[in-house]
UniProtKB/TrEMBL annotation:
InterPro entries for this protein: Aldolase_TIM, ThiamineP_synth_sf, ThiamineP_synth_TenI
Species in which this protein is naturally found: Mammaliicoccus vitulinus
Keyword Repressor part of the UniProt annotation: no
Pathway: Cofactor biosynthesis; thiamine diphosphate biosynthesis
Keywords (A to Z) from UniProt: Thiamine biosynthesis
Pfam families (UniProt xref): TMP-TENI
Lineage: Bacteria, Bacillati, Bacillota, Bacilli, Bacillales
Name of the protein in its database record: Thiamine phosphate synthase
Amino acid sequence: MQLFIAVSPYKYLEHIDLDHYISISKEIDLLLLRVPMSRDSLCHSIEYLMDHGFPKNKLMIHSDTSLLELYDLSFIHFRENDAQAFLYKQSHAHISVSMSTHSSESIQQAQMHHLDFVFFGHIFESTSKEGYVPRTAAEIKRATSIDIPIFAIGGIDQHSLQFLPKGFQGICAISFFRDSSTKEIDSLRKVWNAYV
């Protein structure tokens, strides 16, 4: 089971961004490429990562099954309630298919369609969800009672992780993994190990 998932910021990834993810690749378990880039540009980024030592088995594609298959990758992630995720998992049992969720109903749908895990959030105040209220304690309790691996997302860092309600199998973050050094991520893992 993957524990630490870095989610790319929703922007055009430049070499400086890619070099950072290469530098922290030993400290993260997956990198989700969720970007507003053309297919050709995203292909360039994937090839740059792999050519410069980023492990192929740590790459996760967002929604584009043809890219997943082109590079023979194993992880793909979809938006909440995207029927394509359910259909793809049904016909590709060997691929790890995950989904973003914001309610226990969506989590139940993912579980019913045998997805491998879900992101659930946002858990804490987050710059990427500014103005949106985080999930309540009751929502989190309902979500984590469902029998599917659930990864917390939203405002995750060394401080907030100390207050994460029990029941999550891993964490996802945009800002923390974008901005942190290997030493800082190692410190986060120590906090995570105390959490589990």
